[in-house]
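BUG-225 | component: ligand-complex export | severity: low

The export step for zinc ion jobs runs without errors, but we want the raw record kept on the ticket for reference. Input record follows.
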Amino acid sequence: MVTHAFTNEKEEIAGLIVGEMTDDHIQIYTVIPLMRENQQSDRVEVSEEQLVEGMDKCDEISKKLNETIRIIGWYHSHPHITVFPSHIDLNTQRNFQSMDSNFFGLILSVFVEESDKKSQSIRFIAFRSSPKAEPQYPAVKIQPMTGPNVHRELFSVNSESWLAVSQCANKEILLSLKEKCSSSKDGLAKTWKFIQISENLDNPMILCAKYMSVGLNALRHRNST
Ligand SMILES: [Zn+2]
């Protein structure tokens, strides 16, 4: 999620959060990064098609694991701006909550310079819309997953290679992606689209693996030249 947020400094990125929710805790297993569909850089939208696709993916995983895995929230980035939700964010969130009252939003504020001008901070906020004007900010405690029901191997996303993809966005190896996907702007989006058009994959795990291998190859190619 954090790495995804760092792949685009100019536009907001968004994705769906996959996991389990009980009365006292939320367990995030993985995320589904979404392609940008909105032309305006300062907003993101989650289309109905993207949501339905995400739900189908979760159904597949649930069947495999014999556990209920579903979309429990959404995330998006605020590059260069504060972490707090905009009016548009609160509206989007309200729509989600009308379908599932526990659904939550997560915002990552990235590329924000500290006052010393030498470092950057990353800020997170989890939020829900409330019927009153003020949004709610549920407390979030982040800790690593433990316990017998953890299926790391199914959900792991190699963030290092994601970074590699975005770092190599202008490098030779991604030029072919650029040609094929001229409408996409950043490395992540290009690669994602490339995978989608080159093979009709419907398994998110395979998609992730493919995606990572493109990133790794890009990294290897860069290191060998
Ligand atoms: Zn926002």
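Assignee comment: Attached the raw record above. The pocket of zinc ion is lined by residues 76, 78, 85-86, 89, 107 (CB under 6 Å).
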